[in-house]
Amino acid sequence: MCFYGHDFRFDAQIVLHLSVEKLKLWLLRNAVQFPETYATYLYENKQSSKVTLNQCLLLPKFRAEGIFDSLSYTAVKEDVFDALHELAEKLQVKAGQYINLVHTIKLTTETLFHQHLQQPLTLSRDCCSLPLSELKWNELYGRSVSQRLTCDLLPHNASPFAFNPGRNLTEVFQHNVVYKSGTKWQYFISTGGIHNEFPAQNFDHIPYAHCRELQDSRHSIGHYDRAVYIKTVNPQPKHVVIVMEHGISLSQNQLTIAKAVSKQILLSLNEDDHVSVFALSSSVTHARDDGCVNHKLCSISPESRVYLNKFIDDVAKDKCEIAVSLSDVSDKSLCTASTNHSLGFQEAFRLISNTLAEANKTAENESILIAYVSRGLLSSLVEGKAVLETISTQNARLNYSVGVNTFILIDDGKPIIYEKGFLQDVAEQNFEKYSVKPSHPSVIKKGKMVAVSTPSDLSSKMGNIFEIFQQPTPNFPQISLPFLDQETQSGVLMSMTWPCFESGRLLGVVGLDIHLGDLVEDVTYFNQKQNLEAFLIDHHGYVVMHKSLPRPYLMRVQPMHTEVSHFEQVPGFESVLRRILKEPSGNASLVMPRSEQHSAVFKLSPTINVMYAWKHLDILKMEHSPFILVVKSIQDGSTPREIRSVHVSGQPQLVYHRLDLLPTDNTCMHLKQLATMDASSLFLSAGAFQLPFEHLSQTLGPETKLMVQGYLAYLNDNLNLIRNPGMKPEIKKDVLATSRINSEWTQQYVHSQLNDYIIRRYVATSNGVMRMFPGALLSKTLDPTKREWYQRAHEYPGKVTFTAPYLDQGGAGYIVTISHAIYEGKHSAPHGPHDPITAVMGMDVTLKFFYKLLIEQLSACQQEHIRCFVMDDRGYLIAHRGLIEPTGRAPMEQKHITHKEPLAANDILNHEGFVTKKLCNGYTDRTIQRFYQFNTSLDGIVTNLVHGEHCAKYQIAPIPGTNLFMGVVNETCHMMRAFCPCSMIDRLCLNCHRMEQSECECPCECPLQMDFCTGQLLDEENRNPSCVHFPEEEEQPVPVRQEVRENLAQCYQSNCEHRKTKMDCMGVLDCEWCELHTDGVTPLDKTYCASQRICFAGVLGAATPYNDQVHFSSDPEGAEAMKSTPVGPVAGGIMGCFLVLALGIYCYRNHVHRSAQPHYMAGLPPDATSGRRTSLDNELEELESLDEPGPAGGHTNIILASFENPANISPYRMNTSYRRPTNAESDLGYSTMTPQDGDSEQASTTCAEPLIISRDRYRPPLSVSSRGSGILPPPPANKRDPHVMMENVPGQTILVATDTASPNRVIANVQVHMVDSH
Length: 1318
Fold this sequence. Notes:
There is one protein chain. This protein is α+β, with helices and mostly antiparallel strands. About 25% of the residues lie in helices and about 20% in strands. Strands 4, 5, 6, 14, 15, 16 and 17 form a 7-stranded antiparallel β-sheet that branches. β16 and β17 form a beta hairpin. α1 packs across α4 and α6 runs antiparallel to α7. The longest helix is centred in the first third of the chain and has 39 residues. The chain is globular, with a radius of gyration of 34 Å. The N terminus and C terminus are likely disordered. Keywords: Membrane, Transmembrane, Transmembrane helix.
């Protein structure tokens, strides 16, 4: 394809690499009979093809590089130690500022307690009862809050005289938010369970009764895997065995309490602890018998916590009791066996002994606890002595006194005198009472017994269960590992906490949650261009921030606590890591072989020198350093350079992308984006600013017109008189350098013959500066360097790269992005693929344009038995007949060769060196990704190797200078036996324990399994490479107000109605060739070209991914009439008339029948989607006569879609968080990555009357399978409401009315499509 508007005939040559004349002549002679020989011809003529490529496709690139070549450069001194100390200073200062905020809360709380002793501070404000009038929506918190109040979560047994400083802390909390914008929740948790929270909220997203229980989990013990209170009070590593009774003597209520207590203890543990949980009756039941869980204690990890919680939930009462109650046991004496308490302690000590032995540790240096949760009922009077003898004997074997805490389960109305005494003696290890000789009389650890009669208020009862270790609470702050923000399900937080004391007495814990994105922003956006990299780890070696991870602000799933060695896969790094964790500072060098990953930087040496320099950060007031900063230098002997200066004079006027604030004279709508054709627009990503988090979070308020004017004034200032508004110094140079491309783009737009197919052009620098034409309003969360088109250009420097098709966020439908790299300026020598890359140029083109080029230049591709296709280097199809056929079913994106061409997919795996099946560990979503990698350097063609399908032949050849491959399949019969097995439910691989190079399977994923005992990956999975990165999926587009859109014309007029042939319509922006009726099956009597709103994917009235479809009859004239009719005003008028008339009838009837039974508006009946309107006082149906019938004799079928509604994110995008619904059908067995080719997935649009449509959207919950796994896979990134269940057409989203009693909602089916952007 020719970039930026060159002659049309060259564009076909770029895709096919053949001249039009030669191609036609070749087709006449060869293609009809033997179309597979095309690949041979392509291979033989590849040299002339390269000439064509250089003349056309690379010409705009050379012009852009000429701009950078003409600039003046200066060498940059890049010293790894200077960079380390500068970055460490920034991190230490920022972390110290947050610690100071916690310290301020701590000092204020301790001062308030002294006042409390003189004048009690006991007033409370219940969070759960806060009125809505006090709350206001806040984007930073993800819900409605009050920043002028502190509210309280109170335990049921809270004393009315308990210390409650909440109201008096509000002013301190408010000051902290102003001082540090990354501060989120702030709190104080007392030893009695009183919880103060700022800002105040009423937790309206959960029922009131559950809100009353939040003090058990809010910050104190909760939020996925945090144990904030316990970890602050008892930070030492612990070994805990939880013994939960479920014997025949327990009532169902007692079993419920036992589960709650066990889960509370489990949740109170942190990542440094080890745990075992088993159920006890007359025998022992472990979570699983795998030689690990039933053998020793497990490390605490998110996976083990989830699994053990599930085990606790699944524990049932002893089966024998159930059998007796059902009279299913003939010999009921066999079911009288009571709980064997001695066996429970024997098993607990066995697990402890095995754990210590394998770790080569002794019990004296460990904190070991047995938590015994039981009713305490003894089978005989002598059993108590047997239990104490067991404890004494086992303590002697360990040469240590293990602590025991007991939790007695109390059922109201049942006597507990003897049970309570027994469990009290066990906790205190009262050997003397039972005449048992203790193993070490002087060092007996006396535990405590806790009586529990209800699952409520457990945190207040169990907050001091680890006091048995008699270790003083350290008066130092604690910092947690990163965790997902549970409020917004977006972004990652960290907790900073500090205990409060009064004369050595523990009062509670103060803390605040901070945004990780703010703390590590300097690491996230560190040195984006040069040869230095930085990452942050904790003192265990777990990654806090690394370039392979998503930006913290945009994380959607709980981050996996991963050792940095999984990301730094340099030979010998393990030994360096041991030094990093041990030595406060230092450096080490390694040598690694040159790899393709570094081919853009290293050219001459066969090896690469890598040096690591590190420093343990010295955080203010912390006992030990919580973080270690590492700077990595990739040394190739080259000298980094940067642009010296660029003069402003002669530069075109800058247009900032915020056209909603500073519009141009010719502002227009480019499909769904606010745009301008006057010039390219400038976009600055967060990395272009010195404080990226403040720019993203809008903590200082949203961008204003004054701020934008300040940006432009600074960038246009050639004398450096205007103060920098917060940008990095190098940004101004990048802005001015890229501004020279503006005139080239505007000229190409005027003269180009490809305007019908090119959506937008853009260039992005490594510093985060981006220009786009047409200029358009973009989301501020966009980072072009994280997008797939940018990263693919870096992966293949010197080549033109194509992305797999995806749905354009700006409204263009399915598109493909073409991109290539621009090298750093060089005056005296030609550029090569190993030169440093300074920017990437890209262009978006409609998907169907590629297939149009294919069939225009290879007419044989239109024959029924011949299929031509183009795919990328991972096997995803760019052009194929199956991508453009009107089916009305699933979205046509991320379709793989294994889906559409199973014959070729099976056979090419036998060609050594052509394709490799690979896998990598995805630590961001806990999956193992399996994918294909095709060799773009192949010097030859690929054809049938296994002669099993004699009536089907194929040939595939690489397209030189790109990451694409061209293929032709000639099929003369329908006896295909090839098949690529894929899951029909989700993206899980069918066999996660096997991957053979010669076996065809669709790209898929497996859960990343953990070893519960070690907390590390299983050995076989630990050897897998890490997935380098996952390109970011961009946020929803910036909404444009309805009144603004209605007053602006479209920038580009496609004139679809004037295109009379399919070929003339194909690939044109915003145009579709209408071929099928609304059922997606019946052909139209007369086909025609129309807007995609009218005929998306070739199906009349099909739901669009943007919810802006228009419904009408199949008459093209009617389509044009409808297109010219403004839907909003007409529908609004009808709605107004309807409401006025309905209100009049209601008032009249109410006036006439005031003394009669009151009348009510009925809700939508179950068949509301059938097109009949809900009755109003059982007489509203008469109003239907007022509606004009449509052309087909029925009512006009209009769905009032809100144009500003963001397009739904489709689960069919090949992202790792997607799981298909269990009731969804597949594509005849080929693939379930995308729901395709199944009649059940046809979109159906209901014939609903124009009532008010609810904007609440619901996507059906997606099932998660766990084949070959004993644990649950991670939850999907997009949370679904588990309480709403509806039958739906697979592949569609359902608009669900939240109030079935309301008459102003309608249920409608809408097909889901994937939305993506740059």
